[in-house]
Each structure stands twice: as structure tokens, then as C-alpha cells.
Amino acid sequence: MKFLFLSVGKPHEAYVSRGVEDFTQRINRYYPVQWQLIPPPKNAAALPDNELKKQEAIQIVGVIQATDFLVLLDERGKQFSSIELADLIQQKAVSSTRRIVFLIGGAYGVDERLLKQAGLTWSLSKLVFPHMLVRLILAEQVYRACTISRNEQYHHG
Predict the structure, then answer these.
(1) In this structure, which topology does domain 2-149 adopt according to CATH?
(2) Pick from 51, 4, 50, 59: which is nearest to 27 by CA?
(3) Strand 2-8 vs strand 99-104: parallel, antiparallel, or unpaired?
């Protein structure tokens, strides 16, 4: 199984980049992982929210494969513990899922077609975070889930 972390937005800021890279390298000990950033459309500021989400969705759909399990990160999604995330990842690995795609949508969320395509909509918190921090939190939580699955000493809970 592989992970793809897909995020709409600009490249990581330096203060976040080091942490994202560190946790990405750690995850690679368990599963191959890749980051792919989807740049916002050039005329994003001039577009209505719905049109912006549609244009972002066109780019995102071009990356997602039919066999992928899509996890959409959204503040309105289901919240669960690190242990529950570990269980989900383990379940997908056992069921021969080829790739889990974790999608961090644009500033206004994602188009309806991506909501329908998602196998799971996950909320990290009731709080709203900047996209850069969501990337870091996502990488850390997936790494934590991997260590939980292997009974390693990173998680204390």
C-alpha cells in the first residue's frame, strides 16, 4: 500500500517544510508516501467560490485513480482518535487497498463531486487551521498511526 498526500495550495513555508519532510521520511519506513501540491488556478482571486472549487476538482480528479481510497480532510468530517486512524490504515492495508489518498482541499473546500467520491471525510479538529499546518498535522498523525500499528514507543495514549 502507498500514501499520496494531495494538497491544493502553495509550496510549504520553510518553518513547516522541515517538519513535513521529517515525518514524510519517517512514514516511508512503513509505506511509500508522496506529496503532490495542486497549484490554485492563476485567476483564483477573481473566481466565485463554486467555480474555483470546480477548477481545482478538475486538477484533483486527474490525479486520483479509480482504485484509490480517498480520505478528504474537511472540518465537517468525522473526528477520530489516533488509534482509530491506525485501525483504518491497518484495515485498508489488509484489504489490499493499493493507495490511500489524503486530500487537503482549497481554501473554500472541495467540489461536490469530490465529496461524493471520498470514502471518508475526516476532520482533524473543530478548529480551523492554515493549510500549511494541516499538512504538518496530517503527516505527524499518519506517522503516529504507523507506530501504533507496530506497537512502537512513539504514541503514549
Answers:
(1) Alpha/beta knot (3.40.1280)
(2) 4
(3) parallel
